[in-house]
Structure formats: C-alpha cells, structure tokens
Design goal:
By secondary structure, the protein is α/β, with parallel strands linked by helices. The chain has helices at about 10-25, 35-45, 60-65, 85-90, 105-110, 115-120, 130-140; strands at about 1-5, 25-35, 50, 70-75, 95-100, 125. The chain contains seven helices and six strands.
Length: about 160
C-alpha cells in the first residue's frame, strides 16, 4: 500500500483530506504537523500514522516525507514561501501537491518542472478551491469566447 503524507494533516483542509484518505483502503496515511499532541490524537482517531514536522527545519521535513509516494502540502500560507518542501519531496522521490492559491507561488513552482520530469515525478501547485473552481469554469465557458485576456478572482 502506498504512503500518502499530508503536511498540516490535522488542520482545516488537511484534516478533511487525511480523514477522507484514511477511510479508503487504497493507501496508508501519514499526518504531519507541528503539534505532536493534537496531531497524534487526530492521527490515532482516523487510523493514521503521525510525524511531528516543522517546515522551517529541513531534517524535520525530510523525516516527515521520507518513504511517501505522494506528499500533499496543506500547511499554508504559501504567499512569500519558498519551494524547499517541494524540493525535499523530489530529493526523497515523492510526488508533490499543494493547496496554494497565491498566484506567484503557484506560477513559480514551474521552476521545479525539469527536475520533476527527470525523476518521473509530479509537482503540482494550486490544487485548491479557488484555482480548481476557476479552472473548471474556464474549461466550461472558454468555447463561448474568441479570446480570454484576463480573469480576476476575489478572495
């Protein structure tokens, strides 16, 4: 069974993702986060593993993601953040997905594309509600327009 690690896996979005994954039988779930008491209790309740993780500590992140097939990064905010978590995932041989909705962060992740392709891994950013809903609306309505110059969303 493949291991899915959810960084921020007991937070609002991460908790829902962790819980939904744990209900299925297709993967093992590892919840990772800063608070060992809250995280371990949540992980125990849903039948998952817990690892303490501080995103500012490379060793801590590496230990949290080690052995993962895919890492889902839900521990924002992503505005102003760098790509060290995604880079560590690539080093560890893990696919990487995050819930970022900050435009600069989402666009900038493309700087890791060549490294990901070389390792046959996926690095995806912006897998969240605003980018996802926006993309779905564009896909549905784009045939109605000759050209789309700009799309604006509001927080």
């Amino acid at each position: 069974m493949r291991l899915v690690t959810v960084l921020g896996g007991y937070g609002i979005f991460g908790g829902r993702i962790s819980e939904a994954l744990a209900r299925g039988s297709d993967c093992r779930v590892r919840v990772a986060g800063r608070n060992p008491t809250v995280g371990a209790n949540f992980a125990h309740r849903i039948g998952a593993e817990f690892r303490a993780c501080n995103l500012d500590d490379r060793y801590s992140v590496r230990k949290a993601v080690d052995g993962s097939f895919v890492v889902i990064h839900t521990a924002g905010p992503f505005q102003g953040a760098d790509y060290r978590v995604a880079e560590l995932c690539l080093e560890c041989g893990s696919h990487y997905i995050d819930l970022a909705d900050g435009r600069e962060f989402v666009v900038g992740i493309s700087s890791l594309n060549d490294a990901a392709v070389a390792k046959e891994l996926l690095v995806a950013s912006g897998v969240s509600s605003t980018p996802g809903i926006t993309a779905a609306i564009i896909e549905e309505l784009r045939s109605e327009f000759l050209e789309i110059d700009e799309i604006q969303t509001a927080p």
